[in-house]
Amino acid sequence: MVAEVPLNKLSSMTCRLCSKERAMSRRWLRPGVALLLTLLGTGFRHQGVQAQHAGTAAPTLASATPTEALRPNVAAPRRPAPHPLEWVLKFAYEEQTYLQRTVRDFTCRVTKRERIEGELQDYRYIDMWVREQTHANPRVTQPPSVLLEFLGPSEIKGRKVLFVAGQNDDRLLVRKGGRRFSYVVTDVDPASSIVKRESLMPITEIGFSQVLDRTIRTLQQDVAADPRGDNTIVEQITTATINGRPCQMLRITHPRRRDGLQFFSASMAIDSALHVPVRFDVYDWPETPDQQPPLMSEFTYTNVTLNAELDDATFAAARLRGP
Which of 125, 188, 221, 306 could disulfide-link 151, Cβ–Cβ 3.0 to 4.6 Å? Predict the structure, then answer.
């Protein structure tokens, strides 16, 4: 025989049971909430999370059914944390779009060195004139054009390199420079081994927009090689300066070597006023924990002038035969 329980006692028992469930639920949720707040408080450019309310009050014990009253509080599925490189990729795309829209050409001086076949070059000092490629539905109205003039070191001083897409069979015209036969001009395949022994950056990708395009491809490969982002550290330095100019610097580090990752650490500085990359460097993984990471390449751009109105004469072959 089932004993009847008065309604007021049943209500009291139900309330005590709900209170116990809520207390247990709060104890279970407390570490999870702390972790979530910690995650949201780190990184760059995370957007705030705002709770959304349906506009109607949650059912109270008096209005809820017994099933609703006894249902435990279950946390909603946690949204995966964004990859550390997600906002960096977005930033790179935005900078590239801005440059493609606003920069037609530029001049600058480049100071660079690269590790080629295991040997770190001496610094190269190069004056550079660049016209970016432009389009008009979808015809190319201005082909990419590059002229380099080497100022040092002495063994290559006076060297000049010219490339204009669609001209000279898409080959480089090179004036030798240096101490002997400096005036000799030859044409060279831009993808040849002799060119790669001088620089690992193709002359066809030397414009600012192309540098960012290459950066974007590298970031995409990094995300594919480290999809969870547990081997990727991103630092942002907003108070950096390069040659006295304010810059925003981004540094990416992959502490552990892993297939598909191309570097231990890489940095890029973006001029805050011009929105162009003015320095980047890349380091390989050290062989031992107490070793300094070896420098693979570094490029610094100074005396940058945007939209200098460079004309066809700037990129004429006759420039290679002048003094």
Answer: 125
Interval 147-165 mean pLDDT: 96
Q: Contact 154/301 with Cβ under 8 angstroms?
A: no
DSSP 138-152: TEEEE--EEEEEEEE
Q: Where are the domains of the chain?
A: 86-321
Rounded (5°) CA angle 238-242-246: 40
Q: Say what the pLDDT of residue 72 is.
A: 55
Fold of 86-321: outer membrane lipoprotein receptor (LolB), chain A (2.50.20)
Please give the share of the chain, as a percent, with pLDDT higher than 90: 65
Average pLDDT over residues 158-181: 94
d(CA 116, CA 246) in angstroms, rounded, equals 31
Is the previous residue joined to 153 through a cis bond, with omega within 30 degrees of 0? yes
Token pair, residue 87, equals 């906002």
- Is the confidence at residue 134, as pLDDT, over 90? no
Segment 91-109 shows an average pLDDT of 95
Task: Provide the pLDDT confidence category of residue 5 given band limits of 50, 70 and 90.
Answer: very low
Angle at 310 (CA atoms; ends 309, 312), nearest 5 degrees: 130
Rounded Cα distance, 168 and 185, in Å: 13
In angstroms, how far is CA 193 from the centroid of its own chain?
A: 28
